[in-house]
Write a structure and sequence with these properties.
Blueprint (H helix, E strand, L loop, with lengths): L7 E5 L2 E5 L6 H4 L1 E2 L5 E2 L5 E5 L3 E6 L9 E6 L15 H14 L7 E9 L2 E10 L4 E3 H8 L6 H23 L2 E3 L7 E5 L10 E5 L5 E3 L5 H14 L6 H11 L1 H4 L5 H26 L7 E6 L2 E6 L4 H16 L6 E4 L3 E7 L7 E7 L5 H8 L3 H14 L9 E7 L2 E6 L1
Antiparallel strand pairs: 1-2, 2-8, 3-4, 5-6, 6-7, 7-9, 8-9, 10-12, 11-14, 12-13, 15-16, 16-20, 17-18, 18-19, 19-21, 20-21
Helix pairs in contact: 4-6, 5-8, 6-8, 8-11
Length: 416
Amino acid sequence: MTYNTEPIKTKKNGTNWTIRRGYEYLSDTIHFNGSDSMVWDKSYELIKNTGVRFVVSMPGFNGNGNRVYIKQFKRKTNLNLKYFLLPTRAKTEWRVANTLLDKGIKTFQPIAVAEKRALGSLRIDLIVSREITNSTSFHDFCKANFNGPLSEAKIVEKKKLLNILALFIRELHDKGVFHSDLTSGNILIQSDKRQSGSGEGYSFYLIDLHHTKIVRKLSKRKRLFNLAQMFNALISILTQSDKLAFIENYGKNILDRKRNIHELTDQVDTISSKIRGVHFRSRLKRCVKNSSVYSKNTFGTFKIFYRKGYDTGIFLNLIVKHRKALANNDWDSIIKRDTKTSLTRFPFQDNEIHSVVVKQYKRPSGLRFLKNIFGTPSGRKAWISGNGLFVYGMKTSMPLALLEKRIMGIVTDSYL
């Protein structure tokens, strides 16, 4: 069966659609508001919302079965110069998905692409795909099934699944498919409930295809890089014997006929460690930007960096409580108080957090004040370092927010 059959091309309300036959209703179902963001109703479910894209699912219509997924890519600016010459991310996913399906590689079935431009500049690009039923990301599957001490049956199941995964990645590579962000989050695992037994009745699907290139022959360097990415993504569940078996099942000889399995595994591990270093440094920067986990905002004289899911008003109220505790010498709340810092503790109403500590970095003077102008303020350093330790999985308090009081753009007091 070929998936590159001629689709229907149409234009609705200034938006160009490429639609697989049988799904023509989509151009009349999906609507946009004045800012070119997609509008959805109560029957839609938000799946993901990051700085790069958001994904929703909606019911299938016209007897076309299961739910469909809509992925709209976000624009950093209204002037997207590279998309004057290059295909959009949605068009890339459409092309790659169809090519993978023609190669017999499991991925989502794309059913529509929408693009809208203003004076040639890209305003909308989205892709619609059919739901992959009974599936979840392999990352979430491993987290739910293989964390902590495992029973003998779970160990057997894990080994069989890793074997299937190694063969799946080998198939990708042998067919010239290179996914530059090959992680357990970009692979779905599907369960076939008609089959039973540890490791049986499962299939893997490749997703998030705008990071994917298809070449005639994949180099050894790219093969090793993808294997290292997967080692890094599965670091919490892979033992040394798992890694050796993974390389063996993938095919040692395709990587290097001369080197033994231990040398090749060590090489993949070394590359994985470098990838992890780059990844963690990137994560450190995210805590002072708007990202999938963090937000930043300005309220009066405060600049606030905080974890998503919390109202900034909660943190502003904590600052008020902190100041009152210091003014009233409330030693039930005060933990520490000196010329540089003050720490207080308060109850906190949250499902998992019962109390919080507020650490104030007081207004510096002299050389320390100059450091706040030309360097990184102490509170900011603590916020970045704390989040870094948390990302590394170290046992430490989870940083919730940093509030910097600013005068003429210069940080005076900080509250962590």
